[in-house]
Structure formats: structure tokens, C-alpha cells
Amino acid sequence: MESAFSVQAHLPRKAAPDMSVPRIAMLFALAALGACAGRQAPTATPSKGAPAPTRQQRIHTALAQSVRVVVADEGRAARSASGVALAGGSGAGGAVSYIVTNAHVVQPRQGEEPRYFVLVDLPSGQTQEHVAKLEALGQVPEADLAVLSVRGVSLPVAALADDGELSVGEEVFVVAAPYGRALSISGGLVSQIDFEQEGKRVPQMMKTDAAIGYGASGGGVFSATTGKLLGIIEGYRTAKVTIPMAEEAVSFDLPMPGETFAAPAAKVRRFLGEKGLDSLVGSAEALTSAQAR
Questions:
Q1: Cβ neighbours of residue 172 under 8 Å, at least 6 residues apart?
Q2: Torsion angle, alpha carbons of 176, 179, 183, 187, to 10
Q3: Across-strand partners of 264?
């Protein structure tokens, strides 16, 4: 903006006024006021941290924290599931990552000598295969959870949500590997929460209407708002559909909307504590904080 002096220069010339001392002082005062009026006062700019991640960024982060789990017996794949990296660290043996998944998938069957593998899908489209070790196994159906360890790999870890962050109607997305194929995303809402009857109001079961399929067991239910891990898929209720065809009938099961069951973060924490692995939660939170920086 032009100052008062430059504006004065554009005015038509007039006879020079009587430049007495008081008038000169007044002109300088008016000029100073005009210059101040045309200049914005400096304002303090509040320091801002890193911008909040977008929804797409939260989804890509959850994908990096998720894996595929394969249970092999006698050299062939017997079962497949999903999993979430919950903690990691390093020691004399190198890097190690801890994966939470479902007990009903990794639990050895009668006469079975299973081997466990974790498949990591990379952004490049390649897949890394790592041998895993069973560290903890829950009792189905009370605690359909298990922990695998994978050495030689350091995966981004998911942060467990606090109990108060879980609420009905919250928007979520599920990362899982249906039918043992590549990881995929489905979205929905938290449709129901069951709480323990005694003591504190602690979630013990949750449901979501996010669409899933066979092989999604062990997949993570993430908050679409914060990206934190709200729960681990345990199973789903299906409806049998029968279609008559000529002299035969074809039947198949369809997952029922809103009937996908998951172990909430509170149940995961309790399971880890009961198995002596509660230190994994603290290391996961520290590692997640470091990764965010």
C-alpha cells in the first residue's frame, strides 16, 4: 500500500502552503499515522507441529503394520490368517517383531507338527516370507489370541487404543487377508460393544459391520480417526444360503453384516499380561512414538 507521501505526490499541484513549524509537525504526524494504517501489525504465528495424517495415510500405515499368517504341515499350507505387528525390538540376535493373531488358527491340530510363516506384503508388490515362532497361545473361546515372533525383520507396530477410545458408531477400517490372498481394506462402524459385568467398565467383545471373509481372522480393526488398533478379528457369524439347481442344491455361508466379532484392545492387553508379555505393550507404545517422530 502506498504511504501518505506517495499519495500526496499524485495530487494536483497547488500553491505552497505556509510551512510554519506547527503545521510541519502536524503533517509529519499525519504522515506517520497513514503509514501505520497501511502496514499490518506483525502477529505471532503459533508454532505448529507435523500436520495430522490424512485418512489415506492412516490406511497405508495400518497396511504396513499388518501381515499374513500361514500355518504349514508336512510341507503344505494347512491354514491361513491375518495378523498385526504389535511390538518390536532388537537384541544380540538382531531385530525381532511380535505379531498378534488368532489362537484357533495357529493352535496345533491332533498329530500335527505345524510350522509358522509370516508373509509381509511390500509396497513394491513383492512379498517377503519369514519363519515365525509361537510365543503365546490363548484358550479358545475365552481368549482366541496368540503371539508369534519373527526374527530378522523390524516391522512398523500398531498402537493399541485406550479403552475410552472405543465407542459404538465409531468409523473403522479392517486390514486382513481374506482367503490367504494379499492384504485388503474394508470399512464400517463399531456396531456393538460388550462390557465386563463386574468391576470397571472394560470392553470384552466388540462387533463391526465391516465386510470380511475367510482368512480375515487375526486382522486388525483400526480407528479411521486415529489409526490406532481397536481390536483383533476373532470370527464372524454366517447365514446359510441354499440355491436349488435342477436336481441338486448348492449351499454356501454368507457373513452377516454387523456380526463380525473382535477382541478389543483391553482384551489384548489382558492376554499379554496373563502370558507375561505385558512389557510388549510398553515397548510398542515407545516404538510407535519414535516412528511418529
A1: 187, 188, 189, 190, 208, 210, 221, 222, 223, 224, 230
A2: -50
A3: 231
Cell of 61: 500405515
The predicted pLDDT at position 111 comes to: 84
The residue ranges of every structural domain in the chain are: 55-292
* Angle, CA of 284, 285 and 289, to the nearest 5°: 115
Q: What is the reported pLDDT for 282?
A: 59
| DSSP state, residue 115 | E
The amino acid that residue 274 corresponds to is E
CATH number of 55-292: 2.40.10.120
pTM comes to 0.75
Give pLDDT < 70 ranges for the chain.
1-49, 199, 257-258, 282-293
Q: 270 by DSSP, 3-state: which?
A: helix
What per-residue confidence (pLDDT) applies to 2? 40
